[in-house]
Amino acid sequence: MAKLHLITYGCQMNEYDSERVAGLLGRERYELTDREDEADLILINTCAIREKAEEKVFSRLGQLKGLKQKNPGLIIGVMGCMAQLQQRDILKRAPVVDLVFGSPAMSRVGELVERVKRERRPVLETGEHPLTKITSTLSRPDRLKAFVTVMEGCDKYCTFCVVPYTRGRERSHAPESILEEIRGLAQQGYREVTLLGQNVNAYGKDLTPAADLAALIESVNQIEGIERIRFTTSNPVNLTRRLMRALRDVPKACEYLHLPLQSGSDRVLARMNRGYTRARYLELIQELQETVPGIALSTDLIVGFPGETEADFEATVEMVEGVGYDSLFAFRYSRRPRTPAAEFPDQVPEADKARRLTRLLEVANAIQARKNAALEGREMEVLVDGVSKKDPRELAGRTRCNRAVNFDGGGRQLYGELVPVRITQAMPHSLRGALA
Ligand code: SAH
Ligand code: F3S
Questions:
Q1: How far apart are CA 299 and CA 290, in angstroms?
Q2: Residue 163 to residue 172: CA distance in whole angstroms
Q3: 388: which of 56, 118, 406, 422 fits an S-S bond (Cβ 3.0–4.6 Å)?
Q4: Ligand 2 centre from 155 Cα, in Å?
């Protein structure tokens, strides 16, 4: 049997896609290997969200050059977002590459690899293609938590973001195909699903009859065996009262929402084309907190967007403190090809970006520590997913609000179980507890 080595960069959707590709190639008699030196086919699933992500891929491709000299039959492919964004430029900059294809062509991976073998020249496939649900996948050893893509693409065109160019327009999968996939996961023993979309709360708008994420979550709730439902990433513009109520009323929906803010300055938000103001965002947060008391919130932020002044940045800091996020992801602005903001004249120096990032992360850490400390003494539901990294005698798991908890399980085998844990100690990035 031929051997496939898969390298995945980027987001959860890429992890999901890589598993599908491995599944499809499995049908073409490729088996996975974790050793690149024994592979007949190496595929790199790429991310293009920031420049650093792309640099990693090129340096990885540089490392693979030697393998190709030893094994001229080796096929090297680049797939995913960077493939879609850079297209032929990848072949120019990295002649070691035999195949470049974007996510629309993923379902035809077997055919594309055959074409490379037949034609003995590089193949480029980055055209648009209708959305297909790929059902074949890998069987993984850890069957507990799964990602399920429910929609692709994004129509929002934030001025900093490549996703509309790399993943195309918003297209939703039919509810029935999603539910069938999740029923299959439940049968294999999975307990938690995370519904994925770049703009997941716009789910279903493009379907006939139209569907929505709240209804989808209600249907997933009916599936026996699944105990927890999460979804990501939501856009403030599409956050409906119906979805907030689903978070409150659907028992398996976790009381947690990732709601990217990006900036706390109205001027920057407008230049980002985010479609909301600081006041509107705060209104949504207030409504969320009233509807779902105790809801955990996380966010994404960008520092050093073109034209961001110290005052704009301070507005972001102030907002982060005001909302009191349970966790956050902050990034330095990165200029991306094809995006409008890359051409804005008032780019911020890297040194300012670095300083603002450090400051923001300090603020975020202090809030997180304070929020974690408030949980000491509380009893929380934990889905046990393994053992503690620091002490293998302890069990590890996640709360419904997605915090990591390490706890003394009294020597019991609890993998995959939902158990009550009393929190005894709050650490900066995790909690410690004991079985209640
Ligand atoms: N809706 C998407 C957001 C895409 S990217 C999702 O599914 O997560 C994730 C985060 O990367 C964004 O929220 C943003 O904070 C960050 N990001 C996107 N483009 C960026 C850029 N050009 N520079 C820095 N950070 C960026
Ligand atoms: Fe990107 Fe904005 Fe869509 S951040 S994924 S264009 S909502």
A1: 19
A2: 16
A3: 406
A4: 8
Residue of the nearest CA to atom 2 in ligand 2? Answer: 158
- Assess whether the C-beta atom of 260 lies below 6 angstroms from ligand 1: yes
Q: Which domains does the chain have, with CATH numbers?
A: 2-125 (3.40.50.12160), 145-373 (3.80.30.20), 379-435 (2.40.50.140)
Residue nearest (by alpha carbon) to ligand 1 atom 18: 161
Distance from the alpha carbon of residue 157 to the mean position of ligand 2, in angstroms: 6
Return the number of other C-beta atoms located less than 10 Å from residue 346's C-beta: 10
- Which residue reads 């609000």 in tokens? 401
Could you tell me the pTM of the whole model?
A: 0.95
For 258-297, the pLDDT digits (tens) are 999 999 999 999 999 999 999 999 999 999 999 999 999 9
* C-beta of residue 265 within 8 angstroms of C-beta of residue 312: yes
b/e per residue, 196-207, with b = 16+ CB within 10 A? bbbbbbbbbbbe
Residue 141: the pLDDT is 74
Is 190 a pocket residue for ligand 1 (Cβ < 6 Å)?
Answer: no
